[in-house]
Structures are given as structure tokens and as C-alpha cells.
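ingest -> validate -> predict -> emit
validate: passed (alphabet ok, no gaps, 403 aa)
predict: started
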Amino acid sequence: MKEWARWHTPVNMYEFHLRFQLHASTFDGMTQGIVKTERPWNFGLDSIFQTYGLMGVSDAYKILVSAGYPMAAETDAIFRGYIYKLASAVNSGFHVWTRWVDVQFPRPNNSSSSFRRYRSDNHLSWALTGLSAAGAALSDWALLNYTINGGPWTDTVAGITYLNPSPLKAIIKLAIEPDGRMFEEKIGRTPLIGYSFYHLQAMMTVAQVAQIHLGLDLWNYTVQDSGSIFNSYIRYSDYILRLKNSTDPSEQGRSFTSFSWLYELMVAANPNNPVFLASINTTARSSYILQGVGPVSLLWGEDVGTGGPHTCSVCTYPTSSPLQQWNDLVLDQLLTGQVLSNPMVPSTTLSSSSSSSSSQLLSSSTSAPSLASSSSLESSSSSTSLSSSTFSLSTASIPTTSI
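emit:
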């Protein structure tokens, strides 16, 4: 972990000076130099897949801390600083999606197919997997609130405090229909069912982190006309059980039992559900762990033997979750344009090491409205109970990080 922290250089899109403009968003080097591709914006979009590494290092750190590993303060600061550095990199790719949409749709139109497309994509959920893992590993409740409810989080590389318009709750609303059909199936993404399972895996990871570490039930979460993660698991079990065939020619005759391992968490939570049991038993248990279910300590808690979370004596879990449930009506207002989707304010705590690039970014950013106009999104009690997640990052070194 020390070697990774010392030598790894995450790709942070803000270091390429992202400029979000209507129909003309750019970043340095997108048509020459390091990127120079026919689809340079995709370079930024795909930078969110650093989320895999972020999940891994967050898991490793959590295991060490939970086991009471004797870690020097300097070493702990290096690890925490590296996790934040990687989280900021993932967040920058996340912003390539979300802030681009903020500019293209300054007043969100829930009926617009393009708006729904860019607020429903699996990239968004995958970015949230790493960010939620980092939040759980570091006990950063503001970061968890950012990923789940859309609360504000300060990223000093970006130079802004940003109210996330695409937290998991918002993605569930837009990406899952009442019968459980995922957005990828709806738009005919190829491979149809494979992509639906892939997106479901990301949602599953964030939902389990929320349940284990915050006691939140996102499996059954619905808002107005949306379905739930639970609904989706029911729908796609039909493909594992061969009760349905994909309409995608590329998946004709394909067996989907290789996705049965995704039902492990559902079986754990619903041990007597016949659909989930049948799905998980279509193959030998653990036969198809493709990328792994996810970060073990973050998904299962420390006391794996009894399945009980929060049993670690040295962990820093809150006695009661400081997160405030986001009002679903406010969420719907955000999605339908009644509330601004990009209430950003410049960070007032930028470190000197990042002030130059951040000031360049802020000078080109759209002037942001005051967060006071959206105060209903976070109650005053919530904002005081959440610890500050402002952190300092440098491209030359990893300084001590404080939360």
C-alpha cells in the first residue's frame, strides 16, 4: 500500500483544466498530446473506472484499521491521503458526466430522453461504488451523504463544494422502472441483459455499503414511479433461470448463470426467498466470481462469522447514522428542474499546493447560486453533524489529511 501511495499517479481530470460550456466542453490535451482520440471526452468519462482500485485500497485500509493493526500516525496519514487522492480522481470523472449535464440541461427536463440518458448511465453508479467505499473506510459521512443522498462534498482539486445531482437515490429513480427493468435494457444497450446485470452490480455494492455501515435500506428504496433494486433482482432472475431469453441477437442462446453470484447478497438478506435461492443455486456457489462481489470488509462488516456489522471495538462508526434521509419530494423537484441541479460554491479552504490550478478552474466556472437557496436539501442538523471532508492534495506529495 505504501508503494502504491508513493508511485501511483491517478488521472484527475481537473489537472487537465476541465471547462464546461454548452456544446463546447473541453480540457487540455483532448485533441493533442496525451489523449488525441476521435472521442476525447470519453477519456474523461472512462476515468471513473479508477473506482475499482479505489474500492480495493479502501477495503485494505479498512481491514488494517478494523483489525487493530499498529499503524504509525504518519503511515495512517499516507494511506488516508492516498485514498482521498484516488477518490478525487474518480470524482473528477464523475463530474465529467454530471457537470456536463448541468451545463447542457440547466433546468432539468425529466421527460427528455437525453437528460434521462446522462443521468441514468451505469458509469455514474460505478463511480459511486468507489466513492462510497472510501467514505465507509474513512468514516467520512459527508462523502457517504454525497454518494447516497446527493449532499454537498468539498473536493479541493475540483475547487468546489458540489451538491451531487446523481446520487444513488436519483439514479434508482431514473434507471429502474417499476417492473425492475434497467435503463440499459430499455435503450437496447448491447449486450442487453449483460449490461443490465453490470449496472445492477454497481447499485448492489453501494446499497450494501449503506446497509452495513449506515443501517440504510436502499434495496427496497423507490420514489414515485421508479422501481427498486429488489424489483430488478426479481426481473433478471428470469434470465438466470432460463424463463426468459434476451431479445438481443448477440445474446441469443446465452446462459446467464454466470451472473448467479450477484444473488449472494440477496440470499443473505432474504434466505427463504425461493426465486433468489433458485437463482444462486443454478451453479455451484462461488463458481463465477468474475470481479469479486466487492470489498469484503465494506460489504460484510468486520464480524463476518456472525454476519453482524459494527462489532469492531476500534472502528469509528457513529452510534446512530448522522445522515438525514433526503426528502423524496425534494429529490423529485431536483430531477424535474424545480430546484437547480448544480448549486456549487467555490471552496474556501484550498491548499496552497492546488490554489493555482483551482483558481484557473474557478475563473472559468459558471457563477454558482448560493446554497442557501437549496437549504431544504440538507437540514441544519445534518450539516452540523457531518464532519468536514475538505482535504489537501498535491501532485508532488501526499500530505497529512484531516477530516
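Residues 207 and 218 are 5 Å apart (CA to CA).
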